[in-house]
Every structure is written in C-alpha cells, then in structure tokens.
Amino acid sequence: MVRRQASHRLSFEPAAIYQYPEHLRPSLEGLPSLPGVYTFHGDSESLPLYIGKSVNLRSRVMSHFRTPDEAKMLRQARYVSYITTAGELGALLLEAQMIKVQQPLFNKRLRKNRQLCSLLISDLKPSVVYAKEVDFSHTSDLFGLYSSRRSALETLQKIADEQRLCLGLLGLENVSKGRACFRASLGRCAGACCGKETPEAHHERLLAALERVRVQCWPWEGAVGVVEEGPLKTQIHVINNWFYLGSVDDISEAGKLTSTPQGFDSDGYKILCKPIVSGKFPIVPLG
C-alpha cells in the first residue's frame, strides 16, 4: 500500500509530466546572445506568464527548458518575445518596470509594496515612517527600506541586542526616567537609561550601526541620464528621484520622458543607488 501511494505522488511531480515544449521552438530561433528582457506569453494578450532578464538572452531563456519545475508555466506558454538593452543595468531597470506594469502570472517578486517604510531618526529617537506619507527621495536621516512596520522594528531590536542599546531610549518599551531598565541589570544595555552612558553617546552608537542602511537622497535637482555602453549600442537611462522613466538611444530624446510618478520606487533605488553613487556610469543632468 505504501509503495502504491509513493508511485501515485510521483506522477504529479513536475519532472514526471515534463515534456519539451516543441510549439515554442519557432520563437526561440532568433534569440540573441545579448543583454535584455524576455517575456513568456500565454493565451492572454494583456497578462504575460513570466518576465525575466539576463546579460545573455538566449542562454537564459533556454535554461527554462532544462528546468522541469517550470513545466506548468511552459505548458501554458505560446511564444517568447524579447527586448535587447545596452547592458545589465538597462535589463534590470526594464524588467522591474515591465513586471510592475504587466503583473505577470508567474513572477513573485518586484511587486509594488504599498506599505514600504523606513526608520527616521529625529531628536535622538527612531520612528517608523511610510513612503506614502514622507518623500523618501529627499528626506535626510532615513535608514533601511522595509516591507512592514514589524520588519523595521525587528531590525531595530536586532541592532539593540548587538550594540547593547536601551529599548527605552529607542521607544521599544516603557521605562521610568532615571531608573535602569531590566536589560541593564542583565548587562544587555550599556546604561543610557540610568546615567551610565549619555544619550548622545547612545545615539552615536545607534547611528553608526544604522549607517550601512542609510537611504541616500536623490543627489540632483531633477532628472538625469545614466549612460550605459553595450557591445552593440549605447543607451541613456532617464532617472528622476530614483524612478526609472525609460531609455533612449540619443540624449536629444530624453526630454520626452519627463513624467515622474509620486511615491518612492524601492526596486529602482536598490538597482540604481550603488552604480550611480559609485560613479560607475557617466551621468548627464537633464534639468
């Protein structure tokens, strides 16, 4: 009986029902070995199945056919389309933009997070603020990007444990003024609550621990063009307030991309912040 049940379960495993999707072969013939974004399309014209990116489109798309776990998506696919980019940065930006707009069925990341929040340090004390209420692109002393208030507070608690910070001064628990908190009696608080450490020293240690996740303000007054040179073409990616507005092949066309959405795009920020701040790509101010 046990053996028959195991055999029954096996028949429903992806590897057991996987067949190479021969019907997709015609749309695979022209796939280039270049950077870009690809889309698996199903029967719906408006709802794609999956959107991905790669520095080598052909290699990445073909890898899907060697993965039996993707059999369900491949059986629904009718054809594959692609858009080439100058390089990896353009592919990352375009993929994130397309996923947000088109909401493909099998993509589970890069979805818009309406509860995005951060830790704002003001008057020696952290508080949780939300991107829908505060302009993250231009507000100083923001630390970390979190999907929920709970996630932000868990990070603060972890830092407090690592740095022996006082939960009372951090606003995570109530303590009587001038009296040692419970953690201080256990040696888990350095004593800012009872005068063993000044509030200023406590604050400096908090800032030092948070510095690695400081949210960078947008460094320019307006939109800029980020120039990316690729093997076959050069693109100018138009960015404003960490939002990706689109890409053009000639700087004279950048003025057409002027509409900047409200809010804060955490995916755009994560993709762009390091390469822009590091000076990896030439920057052309457009304002």
UniProtKB/TrEMBL annotation:
Gene name linked to the record: cho
Domain GIY-YIG: 33-108
CDD domains attached to this UniProt entry: GIY-YIG_UvrC_Cho (cd10434)
Record NCBIfam families: PRK10545.1
Name the record gives this protein: Excinuclease cho
Keywords: DNA damage, DNA excision, DNA repair, Excision nuclease, Hydrolase, SOS response
Entry keyword Hydrolase: yes
InterPro entries per record: GIY-YIG_endonuc, GIY-YIG_endonuc_sf, GIY-YIG_UvrC_Cho, UvrABC_protein_C
Entries under SMART domains matching the protein: GIYc
GO molecular function terms noted in the UniProt entry: hydrolase activity
